[in-house]
Amino acid sequence: MPRSPLLSLIGAAAVVGGVFSPAVPPSAQAATLYTLRTVCSLAGAAPTPCTIEALDQGTVTLYRHRLGKEERTIGISEEPYVRMGLWDPASRSWKALSSASARLSTNTVCFNGTDLCAVNPNYLNSLRQEKGAALNGRDLIRVTFGSDGRINAYCYDDGCPSSSAR
Known about the structure:
Helix content is 11%, strand content 44%. Strands 6-5-4-3-2-1-9-8-7-10-11 form an eleven-stranded antiparallel sheet, covered by helices on one side. The two termini are 26 Å apart. It has two helices and eleven strands; from the N terminus they run αβββββββββαββ. The protein has 166 residues and is mainly β. The chain has one domain (5-21, 29-164).
């Protein structure tokens, strides 16, 4: 299973730097790691059916979320530093995320608050596998980024500000 982006970010908090900016946009040539039919939501709206494709594009792992005619792609790069971004098709560029969070009890992952949320047990099971006992009794994991794409903070459960407990 691919490495979880939140795990990558939490595990590399001290060495993260730079804005997410892989040289290439999402590609049709990326190898599919898995496809999941689940529910997603945009901008805090009610969840709707969606498909998530996890794609290996060399140095970048892509998570393509398709909700009807809407598509959002999150990219995670670990070289030279762990970075996360959202593909903006209008500008044909990657935009750094402001935050990412995971609610383990519901298998929900959200990006930029509730701009994009998805139920993705595949994604979170890899997090649980890699972190093992460190996540026992934990439910919320949240990472925030500065405007330069660097991690500002990460928190767990009651250590997260109440406005971030989504």
